[in-house]
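We modelled the chain as a single entity of 395 amino acids. Its sequence is:
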Amino acid sequence: MYVFTALLVIFIILSLYGIIEFALHQKRISSIPIRIHVNGTRGKSSVTRLIGAALREGGIRAITKVTGTYPRLILEDGSEVMIYRKAGANIIEQLSIIKLAAERKAQAIVIECMAIQPQYQLITETKMLHSTIGLITNVRLDHVDVMGYSLPEIAAALSRTIPRNQHLFTAEKQTLKEIREISKKHNTFLHIADASSVTDEEMIGFCYIEHKENVALALSVCEFIGVDRKVALEGMYKAIPDAGVLKLSKVVAFDKKINFFNAFAANDPQSTLMIWKIIKSDIVLKGPNIILLNTRQDRLDRAKQLAAMVGQELNDEFEYLVLIGQSTEIVEELSVNNGVKRSKILNLGWTEPESVFESILACTDNESNVIAIGNMGGMGGKVVEFFENRSVVHG
């Protein structure tokens, strides 16, 4: 009897605490008039950073939270704070970010969606953020085991964060029909950003390789909020890029030059192909092209997709395929099965960045171009850091 009574009391206390905390959260979220929820397959971190920086430049107290390569909180003065996690990533941390933003009297909060499971995406939007502006950057074949094996299925999963009776912005083209239909059901007005609206002159201000689609999407949101285009761009130019953003590091050693393109964050075939086209069209490449593919054991489905893309789409574009990371024996066989000659493959497996550098240097006569794809996790981050620390030109 006493045990039952004690359990009942605990249950009542916890229930009351939950009700009070829920009410407090609703009050906090209501105190922030502009709430932007950024979702999509690629470019979420970049777009989140761009919008936050532009709003701050426009005089709006904006707090930004990105998951990206490394989770970061960007305060209203533009300073960055690392988000420390005792355990793995959990959507509950979004509540603490909203609480902090309310305490700091933020006028806007820009949050990158950190959920992958569709049901958690829905919870983040409908129970936590209640966004006034939603974004879907694009829809690509990624996390297919969770979101679905077709683009329409993935579009439906990402659309779980579309706010009701508000506004949605997107640069997506292939699954626009599906997104439009879901937006209509949500009574949400759809805004479509066009990359062609951004000029080459406007892109010159970025100190790294940014995508016009990301800039167009961010500018569309800022224009809707009321930030002048020139002011917004000035803020974007000042924004610190995500660690996984596409960058070029030029390393000179032993009278040889290595152009290292960090495209690890573009870890789906479509995004990787787009990046390759950008590099090939905008930069004069000299010497052999080397694809550096980093794999993780828990992302073998992604490695399978990339091996097929490399063999079927880029086989004539590169001289060497360097494999690093986990399960590279499997990736080597997948690559060969997709048409890559075994003589072009250097399987380094799990090794040190110095060994990767030495192998690439051995493939370089005078100059070479390394396109790093696959994943920033595992060995990826260390290899990027190695090349960036030795670069004579970085941006």
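As a brief sanity check on the tokenised model: The mean pLDDT is 90. The radius of gyration is 23 Å.
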